[in-house]
Amino acid sequence: MKGIRGRVLLIAITVIASVIAFLPSSPLYPMFPSWWGKIFPSRGIVMGLDLQGGMHLVLEIEEERAIENTMERILSALKGTLEEKKMAATLHRVGRELHTSYPTGGTDERETIKKILDRDYPNLGSRENAGGGLVFFPRDSETARIVDASILQALETIRNRIDQFGVSEPLIQKQGKNQILVQLPGVKDAGRAVELIGKTALLEFKLVDEDHPLLQFLPDRIDAGQEEKIIADYSGRLTQEDQILFERIVDKERGTVTKRPYIVRQQVALTGDFLSDARVAIGEFNEPYVAITFDAIGSKLFEKITGENRRRRLAIILDDTVYSAPTIQDKISGGRAQITGSYTTETANDLSIILRAGSLPAPVKIIQNVTVGPSLGRDSVEKGLQAGVVGTLFVVVFMIAYYRLSGLLADFTMILNVILLIGALAAFNATLTLPGIAGIILTIGMSVDSNVLIFERIRDELRAGKPIRLAIDAGYDKAFSSIFDSHVTTLITAFVLFLFGTGPIKGFAVSLSLGVMINLFTSLVGTKVVFDLVNQRWKLKELSI
C-alpha cells in the first residue's frame, strides 16, 4: 500500500507543478496577485517566430573589411613600436597589405622591422616591392582565422545588442561560411532593430589637421549627398596621412541636413575598444548626449592624448562620421568624454547600447530581411489546435472501442502526458514553434502506443490462464524492454535534431524529447498505479481489456 501511495503522490506533485509552471502562459495570469510571480514561475512558454510573428534576418560579414581592419590594428601597433625605437621608416596600408619604405641606407631598419613582424605576427607573409621596401600580407591560413574570429565576435556582439534591446528568446547562430541568422520573435519596430543590429559602431578618436593648406579651399558647409564629389575633388591633394570626413548637422527649425567637412589624421589616436561604459545623459539645454567612460588603460591613453595636444581639436568619429570635434582645453583625467549631436532620447539610447555591446569587427550586409505577420501565427496555432483536438478524439474513441475500460485508462494516461509535457515546456521557458506543436501531437500517439504494447502482453498472459494481478505485472515486465528501447532510440534521434537543426527543427526536437521522457513515466507508472489501486480495492475477477 505504501508503494501505491508514493506513486500516487508523485503523480499528483508532477501534475500540480506542471499546472503552476503553465499558468504564466494562460490568459488568466494577468489577474493573479503580484506576489505570485515572486514565489512561483513568472515566465511560461514563448511563442516562436512562426507563431507570433517577428523578424527573420540573414546577415553577411564583409570579409575584406574584416581583414583590412585587422591589418590596420597591426599597422597602428607597429607605428608605435617604430616611434619608441626612433626609426625613420614609414609604413602605410594598401588594402590588406602593409607597405614599408626606408630612408637612404635604411637596410638595418628594414631587417629590424622584418624581425619584429616575424616575431609578433608569424602568420604574415612578406615580399619585396619595386622600391626595395617590404610588403607584408596575411597568409591564407591567417585570412581564414580572421574571418572565423570575425564571425564569432559578430555573433557575440549582435547577441549582446539584442539582449539589451529586450527581445525574448531570439535565435542567433552562424549559417554557412560567413553568414549569421537572426530571428526576433515579437519585434514590432523592424527598422530600429535592423539599425541596431547592423550598425558597425567603430568608435575612433582622431586629431583634426588644422594646419593643412587645403583647409582654405574646402567649403564650410555642403548639402547632404555631395560628400563623394568633395572627396573626389580634393582627395588627390591630400597625403596618405590625412582623410576627409564629415559631420552631420541638422537644422531643427527647418529640418534640413547639411554636412561639415573636416581634414583629420588617418592615424587613430584612441579607439572604442577601451570603452568601459556608455550612458545617456541630459545636457544643460535638455538635449540628450552619450557620456562615455574609458577603462584604466583607455583613461591613461586619453589623458596622454589630451595632455600632448592642448589647443588642438580631437574628432570623435563613429563609423566614419564626425559626431563632434571639440578643442582640447587642458589635459583630461578620469577617462570621461561626451558624444554630442542631434539626438533624440531613443537614438541616444540606441547608440549607448551599441557602444556598450561593442563594435562589430567589420560591416555586415543584410542579404535577407523578412517580417512575419502575427496573423500567420494565429492561423497556424488555430489549425494546430484543431488537428490536435481531432486527432485526440479519434485516439480516445478507438482506445475505448478496442480495449474498453482499459482503453479509457490509456486515454487518462494520454491526457496526463499532455499536461506534464505542456508544464515541462513552460518550466524550461521553451520556444513553441509550429513543428513543436507537431511534436506534441506526435507524443499523443506515442503515449497510447506504449499502452497498446502493455495491453497486448496482458492479454497474452490472461489467455495463458494467469490471475489478473499476475497477468498485469507480467504484462508490464515483458513490455518494459520494448518500450524502453523504442523510447531511447527516438530520444537519440531527437538529440541529433536538436544538435544540428535550426530554429523550428530545434522546437520539434525539444517537444519530442520531453514527450518521450514523460511518456516513459506515464505509461510505466501512471497506468500501473491505477491498475494496482483498482485491483487492490475490488479484487477484480475479470479485466475489461
Q: What do these coordinates show?
A:
The chain has helices at residues 2-22, 34-39, 49-52, 63-84, 107-120, 140-165, 190-198, 227-234, 296-308, 345-357, 374-427, 434-463, 468-500, 503-538, and strands spanning 46-47, 54-61, 90-94, 97-101, 124-128, 134-138, 171-175, 179-185, 203-207, 222-223, 242-250, 257-265, 270-271, 275-282, 288-294, 314-318, 321-324, 336-339, 364-372, 431-432. A hairpin with a 2-residue loop joins strand 3 and strand 4. It has three domains: 2-51 and 375-538, Multidrug efflux transporter AcrB transmembrane domain (Multidrug efflux transporter AcrB transmembrane fold, Up-down Bundle), CATH 1.20.1640; 64-141, Hypothetical Protein, Haloacid Dehalogenase-like Hydrolase, Chain: A, domain 2 (2-Layer Sandwich), CATH 3.30.1240; 202-334, 2-Layer Sandwich (Gyrase A, domain 2). The model has no long low-confidence stretch (mean pLDDT 81). Helix 12 (434-463) runs parallel beside helix 14. It contains 14 helices and 20 strands. The two termini are 24 Å apart. With 545 residues, the chain is an alpha+beta fold. It is elongated. The strands form five sheets. It has a seven-stranded mixed β-sheet with strand order 10-12-11-17-16-9-13. A four-stranded antiparallel β-sheet has the order 7-8-2-19. The chain has a four-stranded antiparallel β-sheet with strand order 3-4-6-5.
